[in-house]
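Thread title: Can someone regenerate the structure for this chain?

I was given the following input by a collaborator and told the matching structure tokens would be attached. They weren't. Posting the sequence so someone can regenerate them.
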Amino acid sequence: MNVFDRLLSLNFTWRDAVDIVIVAFIIYSILALLRGTRAMQISLGLMVLGSTFFVARAFDLPALEVISRQILFYLPFAVIVLFQQEIRRALARMVGNPFAAFFRPRAGEVPHDAILNACDVLAAKRIGALIAIEGRQTLRMYEEGAKPVDGLVTTELLVSIFTPGGPLHDGAVIVRGNRVVAANAFLPLTSTPDPRLAHGTRHRAAIGLSEESDAFVIVISEENGSMAVCADGALTEHVERDALRQQLTERFG
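Best answer:
Regenerated them for you:
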């Protein structure tokens, strides 16, 4: 019986199709999460290390088989330790899926003009600012320890918050829909080493938050007044107003 006849003899049902689609989606999600990171290189190394067991059995190498069997036993623990950041990020992003978002109260639309005008004023005055706009994943964990605001997003409110000398100018502002929900929030700093990140805490915090969530973060540099945006762990510097408006429109409609 050839391969084609064996395929025809399989009792393939719709349950098998669903099973294959689910497994393929899980594998694709894992690869998408690891793509372009150091974790991808570590994953390849672990795959090579784990495959030594099957190589040893295929070529009848008893010593290597015994050693590789022990490696396979401890491999899951090594995966948990080495990929704890990626695992935490994946579990956190599960909150942002459409099914979880369905049970969350709907926020108002993000007011693009108010944010753009505030960024223009802050950049012109070279006032440092960090504005985190919530996506599908909630940022409530970062509101803990921050100062609650719960006010409509306006240019005047954002500028007044970041004006030096005020009680809220340090830290980040968290925007949910059309409201500023918190200020003076402290965000997680990125742990990814990058020689380009010699800017300061604001840029590292922006990247750190975008690595942990799907938030869209705007950074105003107090050194040169330039604007930068950060999303999905990628920092884009020297962003102009039109480019910022386009990105806001693409992400928030």
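Residues 98-103 have pLDDT under 50 and may be disordered.
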